[in-house]
Amino acid sequence: MNVLDFNREYTFSKIFELNAEVDEILADFGYSFSQEKLALPQYSGELKRLQDLRDRIEDVLPLVNLTTELARREILIAPVVVELVRQTRAKLRIEYPLKVSEQLQGILDYLLTTQINLLVIEAKRENLINGFTQLAVELIALDRWDRSEGSILFGAVTTGTIWEFGRLDREKKQIQRGLESYRVPEDIETLLRILLQILTS
């Protein structure tokens, strides 16, 4: 029995609100789901501005109330995304509207694209479990929208302080949720190295 009614319209954010099991929703679209350690590769080059990025975030954290998604995006997520763009020259789309079908449509918080790969980042104030479900459906939409030959699509869901990753294998139609999580600012170097590697390899 399907979770989704394919006679209805859904947006990515409406799917977030369903509180349904991620594997059941993905099965409705014909994708399988697993949770495992992804052991994502990391960029091995020099990170010239890493300390500056860490200092900027740590300096303002005691002065900001991070109770809203917007505050988390402005203070914690945007600095990381901007640094990614500076180092990779990726094209950045913020609040990017995407419609593939009546059930695969909505706004992507951040979409970064290079000639090699793309990365979608979904920002959430809380509830990373439902947030990952939304991210997974966004990855499915990108799988059907993107015409590149890359076999893997990556996404991240984050509250700003916690980041988790997902990976879509386009040939197997499988989405994997990484069991690892990365904290900001504590794990910012590892996080940045993973993000850079996704966009440059």
Record the SSE blueprint.
Layout: H1 12-17, H2 22-28, E1 32-36, H3 50-60, H4 69-88, E2 91-99, E3 105-113, E4 118-123, H5 128-145, E5 152-158, E6 162-169, E7 174-178, E8 182-183, H6 188-200
Parallel strand pairs: 1-7, 4-5
Antiparallel strand pairs: 2-3, 3-4, 5-6, 6-7, 6-8
Please mark out the parts with pLDDT under 50 across 5 or more consecutive residues, or reply none.
none
CATH class: Alpha Beta
Distance linking N and C termini: 39 Å
Structural class: alpha+beta
Q: In sequence order, what are the helices and strands, one letter per element?
A: HHEHHEEEHEEEEH
Provide a descriptive summary of the structure in words.
- The structure is a single chain.
- The protein is of the alpha+beta class and 201 residues long.
- The protein has one domain: tt1808, chain A.
- It is 37% helix and 25% strand.
- Strands 1, 2, 3, 4, 5, 6, 7 and 8 form an 8-stranded mixed beta sheet that branches.
- Strand 3 (105-113) and strand 4 form a beta hairpin.
Outline of the structure:
This protein has 6 helices and 8 strands.
Looking at this protein, list some descriptive labels:
201 residues, alpha+beta, tt1808, chain A, eight-stranded mixed sheet, 6 helices, globular
